[in-house]
Write a structure and sequence with these properties.
Blueprint lengths: L8 E5 L5 H12 L3 E5 L6 H13 L5 E5 L4 H8 L5 E5 L1 H10 L4 H11 L6 E7 L10 H20 L2 E6 L2 E6 L1
Helix pairs in contact: 4-6, 5-6
GO molecular function: adenosylcobinamide kinase activity; ATP binding; cobinamide phosphate guanylyltransferase activity; GTP binding
Keywords: ATP-binding, Cobalamin biosynthesis, GTP-binding, Kinase, Nucleotide-binding, Nucleotidyltransferase, Transferase
Family: Belongs to the CobU/CobP family.
Length: 175
Amino acid sequence: MSNSSAGPILVLGGARSGKSSFAEKLVEASGLPMHYVATGRAWDDEMRDRIRHHQDTRRGKGWITHEEPLDLVALLRRIDDPARAILVDCLTLWVTNLMMEERDMAAEFAALAAFLPEARARLIFVSNEVGLGIVPENRMARDFRDHAGRLHQMVAEKSAEVYFVAAGLPLKMKG
C-alpha cells in the first residue's frame, strides 16, 4: 500500500459504520507521512464537540491536519506529493458546504475528477453512503442525496480501490 501510483481509494459507509477508522488504518499502513484533510465545519456546539473529540482521540502524533471546507481541489493540488498519504474526511461534508455556499456542484465535482488521475500522493477519501434509505421528503435533502451519489460514482470510477464499511467490517468492492 505504500506506493502512490495505485490510485485513490474511496471508503463509503453509513454513520458510525467504522469507515473513518478503517481509512485511518489504510493511511497508517502506507508508512508515508500522514495528512488529514478535514472538510467539516463547526456549525453548532455539538459539531464543535465532535470535531474536538475526533482531533483528541483519533488523530494523535504523526498527523498533519488541513482544514478546508470548500476549495478541496486547490488544497489537494498544494499538498500533493508522492511521499505523502492524504486522507480526506469527508466528501459528504464537502457536498454540504458547497450546497450551503451555492457553488457550482458540477464544476466542483468535475475539477476533483480531473485531478484524481494526476494525483501523486496516496489519496484516501471517506464519504457517507446516503442513497440506501428512503427518498427524502424535502427538496434540499433530495438534492444532497443526488449530489452525493453523483460524486461517489465519479470518485469510484477514478479510484483504484473502493470499500463499503458496515458494522466496522470493510467489504472491498473494487480493486
